[in-house]
């Protein structure tokens, strides 16, 4: 769906992804910065998309997970970065999915509250949510608040995270941890393959 801003006196347009899910469909929140995108959230606005790397293995792993669970990207990035973020996700082969951005002017910058509130709001209509993917203690706390199992790619010292997370160092480790839950096939030394 493409929406134009010309009627509001602004130039340009944006593309929005419309996803229709059965109310029983399983979904999971997925953070962006340091979860799929190898950049700091504050650096993202100042970098060209073609120099921003993915976390190793993230596109294939996220695609594998998305074949079993609808991923919903929830980011602390301001909504002014919607087009740039969508273009980066598309250019790097990530699966399409709804993406929720903060509006720093309306909501401030409390990312943990924003993510928790967004998940709770979605879960009222789509209650089949069990896991979440992120990297920060704020992601872990937001997911735990919503009674999800947080799969956390730790970017901070272990002592900063709350109890109850499932830590990982790579997306390959996350796939390995999820292989029984999602019935992902394995190859080699028991590692899940990204192709499902």
Overview of this structure, please?
This protein has 196 residues and is α/β, with parallel strands linked by helices. The chain contains 6 helices and 10 strands. The chain has helices spanning 58-66, 82-91, 104-107, 111-125, 137-145, 171-182, and strands at residues 2-4, 13-15, 27-30, 70-78, 99-102, 131-134, 149-153, 166-168, 186-187, 191-192. The strands form 4 sheets. A 3-stranded parallel sheet has the order 3-4-5, sandwiched between helices. Strands 6-7-8 form a 3-stranded parallel sheet. Strands 1-2 form a two-stranded antiparallel ribbon. It is globular and about 40 Å long.
Number of strands: 10
Order of helices and strands: EEEHEHEHHEHEEHEE
Largest sheet: spatial strand order: 3-4-5
Largest sheet: 3 strands, parallel
Distance, first to last CA:
28 Å
Q: How many H/I helices?
A: 6
* Cα Rg: 17 Å
Q: What global shape is seen?
A: globular
Mean pLDDT: 85
Task: Tell me the helix content.
Answer: 25-40%
What structural class do the secondary elements suggest? alpha/beta
The percent range for strand residues is 15-25%
Spans of at least 5 consecutive residues whose pLDDT stays below 50 are: 3-8, 187-196
